[in-house]
Amino acid sequence: MSYSALEQHFEQLHHLQHLGAICGWDQATMMPAGGNEARAEALGTLAVLCHQQLQDERLSDWFGEAKSEALSAGQQQSLAEMERSWRDATLLPQDLVRARSLAGSRCEHAWRSLRPANDWAGFLPLFEEVVALSREAAGARADALGLSRYDSLLELYEPGMRSQTLDALFNDLNQWLPGLITQVQEKQRNESVLQPAGPFATEQQKALGLEVMAKLGFDFNRGRLDVSVHPFCGGVSDDVRLTTRYDENDAAQALMGIIHETGHARYEQSLPAQWRKLPVGQARSMGVHESQSLFFEMQLGRHPAFLRQLSPLLNQHLGEQAAFAPDNLARLYTRVQPGFIRVDADEVTYPAHVMLRYQIERDLIEGNLEPRHVPERWDQLMQQYLGLSTKGDYKNGCLQDIHWTDGSFGYFPSYTLGAIYAAQLAEDMQQQLGRFEQLLSGDLAPVFNWLQQHIWQHASLLSTEELLQQASGQSLSSAPFRRHLEQRYLG
Amino acid sequence: MSYSALEQHFEQLHHLQHLGAICGWDQATMMPAGGNEARAEALGTLAVLCHQQLQDERLSDWFGEAKSEALSAGQQQSLAEMERSWRDATLLPQDLVRARSLAGSRCEHAWRSLRPANDWAGFLPLFEEVVALSREAAGARADALGLSRYDSLLELYEPGMRSQTLDALFNDLNQWLPGLITQVQEKQRNESVLQPAGPFATEQQKALGLEVMAKLGFDFNRGRLDVSVHPFCGGVSDDVRLTTRYDENDAAQALMGIIHETGHARYEQSLPAQWRKLPVGQARSMGVHESQSLFFEMQLGRHPAFLRQLSPLLNQHLGEQAAFAPDNLARLYTRVQPGFIRVDADEVTYPAHVMLRYQIERDLIEGNLEPRHVPERWDQLMQQYLGLSTKGDYKNGCLQDIHWTDGSFGYFPSYTLGAIYAAQLAEDMQQQLGRFEQLLSGDLAPVFNWLQQHIWQHASLLSTEELLQQASGQSLSSAPFRRHLEQRYLG
């Protein structure tokens, strides 16, 4: 049976990806510096091998035949997801894949020193190469998929999402978000917030983090917590490797980082065992993944009811102080301050950073903006959204992110889609289970059971739109996100 | 050029083995229990892939053609080592490989519970299957290589070694070792040895271990120290993963374990960079590998001059006590006591454990002994060599080792060959550089430079016999080992 042959083939691919995930985690957490060259070569060989696995000549026939085989609904969706992986891996000509990979590596590598040097002129030619090749790739994908160029890239990170939808969503946000930011700043102007006084020893922060992860249902029998420069959630479903970094002077933010990554981790750990080794058993999309981390961090983690549970743990692990009182924690964790850097942004200003990037990358890929004009456009949009100028400051402007350096255009919207999905889910959940004020003040099992039932267990068996529909009967909408922000920040 | 094609092919294999080595290390040190099933599957897929890499149909032609290409001496040896890997992987029919692997897994798995239960009767049928298949494999290898059955297995672990040589070596040992053991026990009877009084916190033991590793030249930029149930030295040359285990009541033995593994590690870290990704760039053999760990542990680590350097470090990290005085350490680390368990044996009685196993496994494979008679033979040889009876005590007798459960016949001699090589090297080194009493009392760089020059840098470019010859002008001989034991234990 061709469907079975496909399953076996993709399970083997999954095993190879498992080795890559663990060795990648090791590279970021455990590996001594001198091991890097050999590791990079080994992982490079593995990447080629995985690609070859997807280019096997038998696949085309198997897909053709499997479609006429008697398959369950789950198998049909599994077949579709296998075909999507195959199509994404084989759609572009090999020369273009190689050229993109090369240009991306070169640009990313140079960026690591050009950014601190604020050297836009040095970056531009490398970036132009990346953009040119990304346009070419987008063009090839667009032709094959019958989508616009930019949508064909978006499809890689959030299948089914279109720029038309994003335009509508972001136009709406643009109507009310800048005003909201001003209002919140006005309201918070006279608020007094105590900053926790460090230093906080790494070991104590780690003990606190582990206890909070346990409270959030992380399964330590199938995962662990370690340290890396850039926190991430890696590994495989049965062995989730979550990382964080500790700042001895800022335990509060590190803790929120752990809560964020635990959201990713619980999604991974709760994917359905039956499909775990197949594409259909993987997380739905980048946006849905981010919705789980942001549900944990923003909806749950910064909610006053949860902070009342967190407060005694902070006192216990880090030493008692007034800054850890629930009311102060609530103020501390909801401070709004427009800034230059996306990764440091608060919940309210974050979407502005994403909208700006979306507009620029969409226009770059569609050919409506040239790379050399990016800084000007960046400055203009930063002024419009956050009232900040980045003129001449490339380092804290358009050179701040890694995403574009290797051509990952289409990724940025996932962050704000995640925030919007999370707000929708939180609203739906509260309608069904009761208000967070109650729900988050005791045992959190009902919250996780709800997510398990509506999101986690479905992996990629449903589309993102179907996930939202069956959780709430509602389509994608920014209204719950707006209500959430207004209630939390102006209520 | 076919030789180049072979190099590329084997380098790719090396990269895959790299991923396996790191994921295997992770499995033993970092992985949560729940991740085991997925990991076993992933590593199983990798093993199949590595095997396929060696069964590539083009290899036969490439080997044929490469032999008539203009190659340097190093390339010729490299070609020979690639061919050896290829031959070892392809010599046996696939059905036999699979059957052995299956029977081995089954027997090893059962052994884990049968050993504690002292259940020889339960073990026997599984073991008979393993022996039968190992005989078949040995037969096929013997035919192809023109060797005796047992020698064809020996060739896997110590290329070039023959049972005729081992018989002579062990017959010689058998002449003087049992008497020596009795004499040493007699001499030590009235010796008073202080046992270090614990407990010793794991963190302190680790700090001590790290300092001793640094003193022994371990390169922490290309390796690290962690904890596993069964200590080993894994990873790859540029990223050596050394493990140990800590017993809070016995810091002294854990430290010797680290010194032992550091010997393996320095060999790995010092293999020639030029050949690192090819078979010829790997360690020469199991016996030569063990010679390095035993040189570090026995020749160097337990020498009074080195113990004088170790003493202040023990006092510093574990707290001062009389047991850490150099003289007491020297007595503590040279206690001789015949016992049932090989892995707990001291330097003097250890060869008896190996000789016994060698005689049994050689006869098993050659068809001169049947599995059901192993316990009887074991008991008889234990009485002969160490004056101990294992009648009815299978757990501490023939069921104690993992090696035979998966059919690794031919491995055991490596341990004693390593001890004999190490003694030869130590004698040669002292003839060239001066006595250990001086050499080991200061900076150890000359010792390591000598090993680098005579052993490490040659990887598999020379045979074991050539390594010994060029280090000393001497062939394999047990005389230095005897002189070493007599001097240290009776001198």
From TrEMBL, chains A, B:
Query: Could you read off the lineage of the organism from its UniProt record?
Result: Bacteria, Pseudomonadati, Pseudomonadota, Gammaproteobacteria, Aeromonadales
E.C. number:
3.4.17.19
Top-level taxon of the source organism: Bacteria
What is the name of this protein? Metal-dependent carboxypeptidase
Keyword Transferase part of the UniProt annotation: no
KW Transmembrane helix (keyword) present = no
- The EC class name is hydrolase
Look up and give the organism this protein is from.
Answer: Oceanimonas smirnovii
- What SUPFAM superfamilies does UniProt report for this protein, alphabetically? Metalloproteases ('zincins'), catalytic domain
Q: Which family does it belong to?
A: Belongs to the peptidase M32 family.
UniProt cross-references to InterPro entries, sorted A to Z? Peptidase_M32_Taq
Q: Which UniProt keywords apply?
A: Carboxypeptidase, Hydrolase, Metal-binding, Metalloprotease, Protease
Q: Which residues cross the membrane?
A: none
Q: Which reaction does it catalyse?
A: Release of a C-terminal amino acid with broad specificity, except for -Pro
What GO molecular-function term can you cite, just one?
carboxypeptidase activity
General function of this protein: Broad specificity carboxypetidase that releases amino acids sequentially from the C-terminus, including neutral, aromatic, polar and basic residues.
